Every structure is written in structure tokens, then in C-alpha cells.
């Protein structure tokens, strides 16, 4: 008998808020946090916008959550630690009460400490010879590349002795970490697993590589409107940063300690399209299969889905591919779904983006409200579903789905539900 | 749901000790030291390491894919095709959704990363090559493997220090046990032997800074540290009811845990759980392939754990240290060790260890009976542990 898995803690570090209530409020308000970046402009990047977290105060937060000694660590690690600690605190888990052998952590990031690599390279390269000249840097350099480091730190802090690992699955990382945590608890191998995803990719090399394949946003118009999923004038994704973490818990364990339950995870699936590393070819068939598999695992009807937090990256190909997949998967019900893109306001923070989407879903189920797709003024005729343009809508959200797609040709889907005593 | 019988049906590796199973095993058995001076142009504290030799990527992948990918991906894709060939596994419409890839890599594409930095900082922003975006991140191995072979099943990439491919094995097995897949391709690869790559690894504090071919001495207190290595390794694991062949070995037990403190206790608990999950007793273990990497800080914990677990054994415990011949491949290391376990079962032989008299008296490098069950450990200095029991296939 598979175990039921619920979410009992949530933490977020995002451009629109570093507590879940600000995060949800700002999403519901439809406010975009995308802005002009002078450095990108001076660098010669085709894209001039990003979505940064300007008020992340590591000095205070590290004191507040007991992370002194990690000042040199890469930014994605710091985001991850704070989001993780917020989720843990929010779950009200008590370190003296749980069996540490039943608790674990899975972390996800796509490109980890790339900015650190870039800075070290610039620091070590000799202009005249073009060769690297060694000087002692410190363990933080290695930690920036080895993605298990945040999981190690939090696992030690909270005495999690079960699974402790990290995955790198590009832009589906957050939902994949959650999906793996879900499997582990569902199969009875752990009772509590934190799924944590973080990204701080803003570096010259990131801009240059993504620009070179035409992935970054070159849309015109006011800077804050340039991430515009499903709009006819959409023109690439806006790079962002941030971290999200959730505590997944076996239902009986959560009930026993009277934990607040934000929602239940009903299903998860992930597949490769096996066609192209970045291009989405075809009519969304592989995403359809992924949706079908997740719905089947959730043991619900497709018509039960009320809301879809879409990958909605604002690239020409993704939004069309995703629309086709939703139509194919849901048939007529596709037109009754409420669909929105969190990236329209926060940009695309790679691995952590789908975790932001999960947290947005939890807010929608809590408040029966779906956040809008910002900047959707001129709908692409081929993207003709209900993407909740610009203004949030009241809607009973009992069941919701998250879709994510990423480099490497990976598609992942999660199914969530309001918690009910009997499923 | 842990009742499915899991068998290894294919193996492949690209290794400093050889790029075919036979070459690799013969070199290990003949105690050939497969590392030497690296001769990296940049100023790096790591002077000695183990390089793959005589490897031509286009023997395994198209020129087009070779250009678009980094060395670490070449190693994985080559290992994978060797393993798939041995398993007789081809992907087609009927099985494309039932096969998954589980891949470990610790640090992505150093060669292409340095090329990108060079293009960016010595040429111009617009000169950065377009392959950079999909070649440098660890998921490239999984992505290209799925594209080349048409694999669409549940797949994941793990970045977890020395245990990256151990995590891939563990979670790949979980995907078989919970019916997400029927067959999995599991492997890992690493290619860190560049200027920036070696400097990065040096900063973890465990890598040998020896300036000559000073020998890596696992389980010996004056070992110079880990010899940094490269390469790839892959195995095919199938549930017995879905396998096309009888298989090479059985993965009978597996476990993981994380003990940041009390690390000895953690290693004991992990080995114990793996043995328990295989329905075996400690007395049933015929051979251990430990993490044993030559970093004394790590090795002494493992020795103490083994002593605690096997102390009541009446005879000495056979042990093998493949890494002492070809170094530590990080992302590929655990699967290389699993392949060594399969080879030891197949040939009932283990490599000798020239420092056997210097290590704890609990261990021997002589076999006293037929090998039926091999315990393979993989662990990080932070305290993440994996243990696997690789066994002779029962009729």
C-alpha cells in the first residue's frame, strides 16, 4: 500500500518576496519584477533584462538561521540554505521529536556556482600568457560546483540521516527533486524529505551562452513587460534567480504531529523527448505522455484538474508546444482550465522555477485564487487557452498540475490536491 | 515493493586502465599503475593524475555529436554503447518509454567551460560558441544519451561529489522497484583534468599534490591523497522478468544514508542495511571493494567501520582497491567499482594490493573461497554513504 504524501512546509527566496505570504500576494497582484540590467547592456547582450533579488540580506539571514561560517559560499547555496530553513521552520518540525533516519533532503540546481567559476577564472588568468596561475582559493570553489553541498549543510543542521543527494536536470530540477522525494516517501523509505531547488545563474558566461542560442528575451517595450508568455510578441525567456523549498511528509506522520498541511502530492512523472537538447519538436506528444502518466498515478480524471501552473517560459516554441500538449492531453477540458505562468513576473530561474510554480499552486489552493499571466496583451492566436491575462481570478482550486520542460529534452509534471481526509 | 530481482546485463567503461573490459581487467590484475604526470600547461598544484588513453570519441559517436559535446559526455556515451552492446539492448517504439537513464557527474564540462571563458574574455561576448549552453552542464550526458538511443523513460542526473554515480545506481534501482522503468542504463563520467578543473578539485583538500608518480595507497596512513582521474562507466540493469539474457551479476542489496557526524556509525549502518536488504549475513560477504581512495581522513573512517562490522569474522576479509591503479573518477567511480565487482565474480579473481601488509590485519588480498557476494562502498567526506551487494546470479 503506497503512502500518501503531503506538503507541510514551504520556504521561498524570490525577487517578489522572501516569505510565502509576500510571494503569494505579489503573484496575485500580477506585478512583474523583471527589470533593466545595465551590466547586460554594457556587455553587449542582446537581452537587457533579468530578474534579480536585490534585497537578499545574507548578513542578517545567516545570523537568523545559524549559517555563520558560510559567507564565502556561492549565491545559489545561500539562497538554498535560507529557503530550506524557512521551509523547515514553517513545517514546525521538531528536531527532538522525529526519527532522523526517516528524514532526508534532495536538492536541485541546473548550473550551480557558474558565477563563482567565472570569477575564479578571471582572477587566475594571466593576460600576457593566457594561462591560469594558481593561488589558493578555498573550498568554496569546489563547493560551488559540487551540488550536494547545500544538501549536506542542511542535512547536518537538521540531522537528516536518510537520503541526501542532488540532481541536475536543467529547468525541471525543482519538480524532479519533489518527484523523487514523493517516490521515496510513497514507497515507505522515508517519512520526511525536503525538496529544495536553487539557482543564481547571473553571470556573463550565462548570458553569452544563452544569447548565442537565442534563448534569452529580446522583446521590446517597457522592461517589466518583456517576459510575456503566450503573447504574440513573446521573444525569449528572462533569466532570473531564487530558491524554493518544500517539506514533503508521509500523511500519518504529519497528522500525528498535527502539522499544517498545505496540500497533497498525488502524482509525478518525467520523460525525455529524445529529439533535441533545446528544441521542442512536434505537437507536444512527449509532454502529453508525461501528463497522462502523472494523472494516471494520481488516480483522478483529467477533468478534475482546475489549474495548471505552466512552464510558460515566454519562448516562441515552448509556449506553443505546451499549448498543443495541453489541448491534446485534456481535449475540450483544456479550454476550461485556468492556466498561468509564474515566469511572466519572476522570469526563469532554471531549476528553481518549477519549485516556485509548486509554491504558487499551494497559494492557489489555499486562497482559491489563481495568479495571472502578466503582460499578456496580445494573445498568440495559436495559444488560445485561458492563461488568466494580467488580473488574478477567484477560482476553486481543488486539484492543480505543474508542467516543466528543460534543456536535455526533459518534461516533468506534478499533480497536487487540497488535502482531504479521504482521497 | 523491493522484491524484483535485478540483474546486470551489460558493462562498459572508458578508463585509464583500458577502454575494453578485457584490457581494463588484465591491467588491474597485473597491478599496472595507470597514472602519471599530467603536463597541464596552466599552473596547477595537481601534477599527477590518471588520463584515459587511446580514446577516439568518433569510434562511438558521430562527429557532429562529438563537436557539440564535452569530453565527459564522450566518455559516458562511449561507455554506454559498450554496455548496451554487451546487454544486446536496442531501443525501439515498444520499449522506448520503459527504459531510463541514471547518470552521475560531479562537475560538468571543464574543457568547454574554459573554452567559453577564453572566448568571452579574450575575444568577445559574441564569440562564445553556441554548443556551450548544452555541453557544459551535467545533464548533457543524460540528454545526449536519450537523443542518440531514443530513450524516453524516467531518467535523472546526479551531482553528488564522489558518490554521484552511486546515487544514480541507487535511484535507478528504485525506479525499477517502483515500476517507473523496466530497464535502466546507469553510469557516470568525469573529465576534470584541465587547468581550471584540477585547481577546483585541488580545493576540496583530498587530492594528491605529489609531484612524481608517488603511489596512491588506500587504507595506508601516509598515502599522498586521492589520485584525480577521468573516464566513464556504464551498466545495464534489468528486472529479471524483462531481461533478454541470464545476466552477469545480480544487484541483491543496496542502501544509503547520511551521517555528517559519527561517520563510522554511518558507514556501519549503511553496509549493514545493504547486507540485510540482500537477505545475507556479514559472514556471506566474500569480497569488499571499499571507497578506499587514498585520502586517509576518509579511509580511516571506513577501516574503523569495517572493523566494527566484520570483527567477529573468523577469517580475513578479502578486499580489492581498484582505485589504486587508476585513481578516483568521481562521477564514474562507483559504477567502475560495480563493474570490478562483476569482473571479480566472473573470473573469481581480484587484483593484488602491494601495500596489503601495511593495512589493517582484518584484510587480505587473497581469495579463500569462491566469490558469491561482493560489498561495494561509495562515500563522501561529508558523510554520504552508499553500499551495494553484487552477487552471483542464483539459478
- In CATH terms, what is the fold-level topology of chain A? Peroxisomal Thiolase, Chain A, domain 1
Question: Mean of the pLDDT scores of chain B?
Answer: 96
CATH architecture of chain A: 3-Layer(aba) Sandwich
What percentage of amino acids of chain A are in beta strands? 15-25%
CA distance, first residue to last residue of chain B: 22 Å
Strand content of chain B: 15-25%
Give the uncertain stretches of chain B in residue-range form: none
Overall shape of chain B: globular
Helix content of chain A: 25-40%
Number of helices of chain A: 14
Radius of gyration of chain A: 20 Å
Explained architecture:
The complex is a heterodimer of chains A (423) and B (395). Chain A is α/β, with parallel strands linked by helices. Chain A has a single domain (5-417), classed as 3-Layer(aba) Sandwich (Peroxisomal Thiolase, Chain A, domain 1). Helices cover 35% and strands 19% of the residues of chain A. Chain A contains 14 helices and 15 strands. Chain A has helices spanning 20-29, 38-43, 58-65, 75-91, 114-124, 139-145, 148-157, 173-186, 204-212, 251-256, 285-298, 316-330, 343-346, 353-367, and strands at 5-13, 35-36, 49-51, 103-108, 164-167, 192-199, 239-240, 242-250, 263-272, 307-309, 338-340, 369-370, 393-394, 399-406, 410-417. In chain A, strands 5-4-6-8-1-9-15-14-10-11 form a ten-stranded mixed beta sheet, with helices on both faces. A three-stranded mixed beta sheet of chain A has the order 2-3-7. In chain A, strands 12-13 form a two-stranded antiparallel sheet. In chain A, strand 10 (307-309), helix 12 (316-330) and strand 11 form a beta-alpha-beta unit. Chain B is an alpha/beta fold. In chain B, a hairpin with a 4-residue loop joins strand 13 and strand 14 (384-391). Chain B is globular, with a radius of gyration of 20 Å. The two termini of chain B are 22 Å apart. The mean pLDDT of chain B is 96. Classes of the chains: A alpha/beta (423), B alpha/beta (395). At the A-B interface, helix 5, helix 6, helix 7, strand 5 and helix 8 of A face helix 4, helix 5, helix 6, strand 5 and helix 7 of B.
Amino acid at each position: 500500500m503506497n503512502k500518501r504524501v503531503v506538503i507541510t512546509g514551504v520556504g521561498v527566496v524570490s525577487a517578489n518576496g522572501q516569505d510565502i505570504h509576500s510571494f503569494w500576494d505579489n503573484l496575485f497582484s500580477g506585478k512583474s519584477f523583471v527589470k533593466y540590467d545595465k551590466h547586460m547592456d554594457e556587455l553587449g547582450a542582446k537581452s537587457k533584462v533579468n530578474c534579480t533579488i536585490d534585497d537578499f540580506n545574507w548578513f542578517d539571514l545567516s545570523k537568523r538561521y545559524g549559517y555563520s561560517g558560510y559567507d564565502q559560499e556561492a549565491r545559489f547555496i545561500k539562497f538554498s540554505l535560507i529557503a530550506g530553513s524557512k521551509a523547515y521552520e514553517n513545517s514546525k518540525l521538531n528536531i527532538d521529536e522525529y526519527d532522523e533516519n526517516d528524514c532526508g533532503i534532495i536538492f536541485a540546481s541546473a548550473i550551480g556556482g557558474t558565477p563563482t567559476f567565472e570569477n575564479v577564472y578571471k582572477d587566475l588568468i594571466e593576460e600576457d600568457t593566457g594561462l591560469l596561475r594558481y593561488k589558493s582559493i578555498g573550498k568554496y570553489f569546489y563547493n560551488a560546483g559540487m551540488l550536494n553541498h547545500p544538501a549536506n549543510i542542511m542535512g547536518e543542521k537538521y540531522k537528516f540521516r536518510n537520503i541526501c543527494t542532488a540532481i541536475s536536470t536543467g529547468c525541471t530540477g525543482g519538480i524532479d527533486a519533489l518527484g523523487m522525494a514523493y517516490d521515496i516517501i510513497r514507497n515507505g523509505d522515508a517519512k520526511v524529505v525536503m525538496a529544495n531547488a536553487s539557482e543564481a545563474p547571473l553571470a556573463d558566461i550565462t548570458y553569452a551562452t544563452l544569447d548565442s542560442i537565442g534563448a534569452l528575451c529580446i522583446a521590446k517595450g517597457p522592461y517589466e513587460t518583456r517576459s510575456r508568455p503566450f503573447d504574440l510578441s513573446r521573444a525569449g525567456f528572462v533569466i532570473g534567480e531564487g530558491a524554493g523549498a518544500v517539506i514533503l511528509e508521509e500523511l500519518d506522520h504529519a497528522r500525528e504531529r498535527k502539522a499544517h498541511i498545505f496540500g497533497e502530492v498525488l502524482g509525478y512523472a518525467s520523460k525525455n523527448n529524445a529529439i533535441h537538447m533545446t528544441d521542442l519538436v512536434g505537437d507536444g506528444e512527449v509532454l502529453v505522455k508525461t501528463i497522462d502518466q502523472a494523472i494516471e498515478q494520481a488516480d483522478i480524471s483529467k477533468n478534475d484538474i482546475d489549474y495548471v501552473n505552466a512552464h510558460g517560459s515566454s519562448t516562441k516554441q515552448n509556449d506553443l508546444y505546451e499549448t498543443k500538449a495541453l489541448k491534446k492531453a485534456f481535449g475540450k477540458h483544456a479550454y476550461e482550465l485556468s492556466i498561468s505562468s509564474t515566469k511572466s513576473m519572476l522570469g526563469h530561474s532554471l531549476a528553481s522555477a518549477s519549485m516556485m510554480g509548486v509554491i504558487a499552486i499551494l497559494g492557489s489552493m489555499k486562497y482559491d485564487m489563481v495568479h495571472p499571466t502578466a503582460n499578456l496583451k496580445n494573445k498568440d492566436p495559436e495559444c488560445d487557452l485561458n492563461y488568466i491575462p494580467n488580473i488574478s481570478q477567484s477560482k476553486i482550486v481543488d486539484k492543480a498540475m505543474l508542467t516543466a520542460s528543460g534543456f536535455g529534452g526533459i518534461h516533468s509534471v506534478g499533480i497536487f490536491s487540497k488535502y482531504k481526509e479521504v482521497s | 515493493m523491493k522484491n524484483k530481482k535485478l540483474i546486470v546485463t551489460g558493462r562498459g567503461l572508458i578508463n585509464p586502465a583500458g577502454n575494453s573490459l578485457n584490457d581494463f581487467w588484465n591491467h588491474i590484475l597485473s597491478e599496472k599503475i595507470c597514472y602519471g604526470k599530467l603536463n597541464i600547461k596552466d599552473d596547477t598544484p595537481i601534477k599527477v593524475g590518471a588520463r584515459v588513453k587511446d580514446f577516439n570519441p568518433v569510434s562511438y559517436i558521430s562527429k557532429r555529436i562529438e563537436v557539440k559535446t564535452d569530453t565527459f559526455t564522450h566518455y559516458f556515451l562511449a561507455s554506454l554503447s559498450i554496455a548496451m552492446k554487451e546487454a544486446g539492448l536496442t531501443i525501439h517504439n515498444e520499449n522506448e518509454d520503459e527504459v531510463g537513464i541514471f547518470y552521475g557527474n560531479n562537475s560538468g564540462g571543464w574543457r568547454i567551460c574554459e573554452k567559453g571563458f577564453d572566448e568571452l574574455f579574450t575575444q568577445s561576448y559574441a564569440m562564445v560558441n553556441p554548443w556551450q549552453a548544452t555541453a557544459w552542464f551535467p545533464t548533457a550526458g543524460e540528454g545526449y544519451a536519450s537523443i542518440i538511443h531514443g530513450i524516453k523513460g524516467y531518467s535523472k542526473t546526479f551531482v553528488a561529489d564522489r558518490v554521484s554515480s552511486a546515487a544514480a545506481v541507487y535511484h535507478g534501482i528504485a525506479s525499477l522497484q517502483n515500476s517507473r522503468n523496466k530497464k535502466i542504463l546507469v553510469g557516470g563520467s568525469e573529465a576534470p583534468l584541465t587547468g581550471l578543473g584540477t585547481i577546483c578539485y585541488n580545493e576540496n583538500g583530498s587530492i594528491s599534490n605529489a609531484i612524481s608518480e608517488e603511489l596512491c595507497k588506500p587504507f595506508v596512513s601516509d598515502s599522498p591523497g586521492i589520485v584525480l582521474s577521468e573516464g566513464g562507466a556504464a551498466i545495464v540493469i534489468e528486472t529479471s522478468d524483462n531481461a533478454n539474457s541470464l545476466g552477469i551479476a545480480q544487484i541483491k542489496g543496496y542502501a544509503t544514508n547520511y551521517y555528517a557526524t559519527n561517520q563510522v556509525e554511518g558507514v556501519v549502518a549503511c553496509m549493514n542495511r545493504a547486507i540485510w536488504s540482500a537477505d545475507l549475513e556479514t559472514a556471506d560477504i566474500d569480497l569488499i571493494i571499499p571507497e578506499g581512495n587514498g585520502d586517509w581522513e576518509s579511509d580511516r573512517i571506513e577501516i574503523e567501520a569495517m572493523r566494527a562490522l566484520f570483527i567477529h569474522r573468523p577469517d580475513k576479509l578479502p578486499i580489492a582497491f581498484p582505485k589504486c591503479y587508476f585513481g578516483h573518477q568521481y562521477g564514474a567511480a562507483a559504477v567502475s567499482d560495480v563493474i570490478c565487482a562483476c569482473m571479480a565474480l566472473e573470473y573469481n579473481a581480484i587484483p593484488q594490493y602491494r601495500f596489503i601488509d601495511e593495512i589493517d590485519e582484518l584484510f587480505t588480498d587473497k581469495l579463500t573461497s569462491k566469490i558469491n557476494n561482493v560489498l561495494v562502498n561509495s562515500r563522501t567526506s561529508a558523510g554520504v554513504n552508499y553500499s551495494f551487494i553484487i552477487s552471483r546470479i542464483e539459478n
